[in-house]
Amino acid sequence: MKRLEGKSALITGGASGLGRAQAIRFAEEGAAVAIADINAEKAHAVADEITSGGGTAIAVSIDVTDEKSVIAAVQSTINAFHRIEILSNTAGAFDNFAQSLDTSRELWDKIVAINLTSLYLVSNAVLPHMIANGRGVVLNITSGAGLRGGGGGAAYTSTKHGVVGFTRQLAAAYGHKGIRVNAIAPGLIDTPMVAHFSSDAGTKAGLSAKPAGRIGTAQDIANAALFLVSDEADFIHAVTLPVDGGLVEIL
Fold first, then answer.
1. Integer angstrom CA distances of residue 33 from 36, 77, 238
2. Cα–Cα 20 to 30 A to 195, which of 5, 138, 172, 235?
3. Is 156 an annotated catalytic residue?
4. Considering the domain boundaries, does residue 1 fall inside one?
5. What's the total number of domains in the chain?
6. What angle is formed at CA 63 by the lines to CA 61 and CA 64, rounded to 5 degrees?
């Protein structure tokens, strides 16, 4: 039997990058997947890619910073699949390393809304359904910047640290209700969000000295995500797993 056979998953930011990779990987393992994204066209393209390969998927329009949009997206997913066993909070935004004095209030509020408040909104919309079913898995995507300083700008680093804290708190509050909550902290991953600096020769040279000696791929994250949302990780709670080629551990 496939590892996610008969389960349904909602993935925010599912139209590209890490979200798209998870959607495809989860569908390969039997999950019915809702690709939730603000870019409806790209979300439909991913859903079509999955269904054309024999999987089950729908596209769901969502603005993760808007509570009404979040509630509607969750309800659309439940209408299609009857329940949500897996939630992956993957939608995020970067601040281009803007330090505090260079961060406008507008940029700060935007990054906080997308990277942190969205997890509160989406999780709160999904958790009551999971609790009613007595079981569920929440996976939050943070960053290596959530485990140290210097991995991003002021807003990005602060929000990604917040994701780690939110993950631990959700696990402490709802683990006894059958809800597992964990996070993944990606390192430098070859996705559109980081393409503008991951191709830099200096960056690549620096990475060559690290244990893995390469930039990560979205598939690396999807494989780790698959394990954490599967029943194989049933005794793993409140963990933030670095998937970064060893970068954080040797800094």
1. 9, 9, 24
2. 138
3. yes
4. no
5. 1
6. 120
Share of the chain above pLDDT 70, in %: 92
The catalytically annotated residue of 94, 108, 156, 166 is 156
Q: Do 90 and 13 meet the contact criterion of CB atoms below 8 Å apart?
A: yes
pLDDT of residue 212: 85
Domain residues for the domain of 24 are 8-246
- CATH number assigned to the domain comprising residue 161: 3.40.50.720
Strand order in the sheet with 86-89: 56-61, 32-37, 8-12, 86-89, 136-141, 179-186, 240-243
pTM: 0.94
Radius of gyration of the chain (CA): 17
CB-CB neighbours of 139 under 10 Å: 25
**48-80 residue pLDDT tens:** 999 999 999 999 999 999 999 999 999 999 999
